Hints:
This protein is of the alpha/beta class. It contains 28 helices and 18 strands.
Amino acid sequence: xxxxxxxxxxxxxxxxxxxxxxxxxxxxxxxxxxxxxxxxxxxxxxxxxxxxxxxxxxxxxxxxxxxxxxxxxxxxxxxxxxxxxxxxxxxxxxxxxxxxxxxxxxxxxxxxxxxxxxxxxxxxxxxxxxxxxxxxxxxxxxxxxxxxxxxxxxxxxxxxxxxxxxxxxxxxxxxxxxxxxxxxxxxxxxxxxxxxxxxxxxxxxxxxxxxxxxxxxxxxxxxxxxxxxxxxxxxxxxxxxxxxxxxxxxxxxxxxxxxxxxxxxxxxxxxxxxxxxxxxxxxxxxxxxxxxxxxxxxxxxxxxxxxxxxxxxxxxxxxxxxxxxxxxxxxxxxxxxxxxxxxxxxxxxxxxxxxxxxxxxxxxxxxxxxxxxxxxxxxxxxxxxxxxxxxxxxxxxxxxxxxxxxxxxxxxxxxxxxxxxxxxxxxxxxxxxxxxxxxxxxxxxxxxxxxxxxxxxxxxxxxxxxxxxxxxxxxxxxxxxxxxxxxxxxxxxxxxxxxxxxxxxxxxxxxxxxxxxxxxxxxxxxxxxxxxxxxxxxxxxxxxxxxxxxxxxxxxxxxxxxxxxxxxxxxxxxxxxxxxxxxxxxxxxxxxxxxxxxxxxxxxxxxxxxxxxxxxxxxxxxxxxxxxxxxxxxxxxxxxxxxxxxxxxxxxxxxxxxx
Length: 659
């Protein structure tokens, strides 16, 4: 696990601003605190800060190079099939036991096709001296981030945007389309970021940079997999369930590989308890640590259920306090240290979980991906219901809508009132637009009137043909999971120098899931049917029947109570009109309805709040003075020293120091 960074000249001229490279290393120190090395030629630089997980000796520190010094490699992530690749290239003179080094002989033999052979999570930078090309690649699901910016005739890259923002010639212009996406969905869609001049390497692709320019090589197309998945006869279901059991067990066991202790982020739900059960069986009783968030509000807390699972399977269990004071401390750190607005409030308890976990382990397994691959969200049931009641007369549906909207707002995390209001808001729309209405923030109207909205149709068209059963899950995999959930867990864990792995995103398991027909995922009123059938081998039936709750925070109450004053200032017309990114009239209407308990707008308002905090910290020219100095919501401008300490331990290599 590493934090990688660097630059390449797209001309024959040498790199400029090389003095920034040690500063970039320092900006990414939290992603790899154990070592820092930098390779340079006159046209290219590739650096890596390392978090030592597999082969914790210095011989495995990156960047790696081939013996002749012609190919250099830096990688953040884990290659789970590294032992198979090591056997395939057993004649290669490996210098370490690292799972990453196997990429070098594989790339030398296969070129860009190497990425099809890798099972893992990764962000990779490869410099090929012979062809003078830089290759930047990301894993299939997008577990590991990689950003880049073209500045004059150079391409600069890093795993977090604050490292790129060090460049004095990088303009910090806001991408208005990305902001519209963020306010509507809760995140910008790749390759966009909130900064117009910073882009993301897309998941499942390799970006090739040379003097000829930039080109994208796509090696993974999940929509095509879903489109061509075969149908299954009902009598084949038991066979599919058994196959799924073996795939899950194999995925968890592969991802336990580490030369350090491993833990599990555990809620009381199916996904994480299944991982913990298999991990504990494989590693032995009391060998796996489990970490659970404990909330003050009962409707948010699953601590008792997680503790029961831990006692049953035999993990070393720790409860992590996530009361309001803890969550607000997490908010101060997250909003000041990450150069991107993140609307998912679950990043706050995840940050606290990682903070505690880092005292005990360096690797945690998490349940990301299970809901998108196996049909776990209530929205999938909603699509089935909406199509069934489409035959009901419109006048009746309108009457039901009026009755539902008159229901008082529930203080619970996801109460029946919230679900019903979401349902009636989208039930008459075509399924793609309905899905955006349901899983988005509800804040699309917050985008300033001049913002481009054409992206919505383009976003939906790729999955529209898949239909209302397969399509929503594919959309969620390609957006909510990739651009939301995986961003959340990567940033929250890496701020504490801890590696998070997602066994459900194992390549073979993912390909299997894409081939499972939707009726085996959402079966009647049961979500994740096939996963629950497979899990019944290890998990008690009572736990399988529990309603999905998810990880969140009481932001609806915060907006009206603990943070009422600061939120009112942040979303005031004067502040919003200054930068023109949000419609101040819509914001005031939403805030008024929320505080009057007419409608729960907390998701949309929280996205706006986090956007404003991002502006206060990273775009001061567009924001007024922060109101949070009074309540110590965010630190003062001293954060620069905290984020970017001096990187005095950065070692520099050149092409003559390949080994």
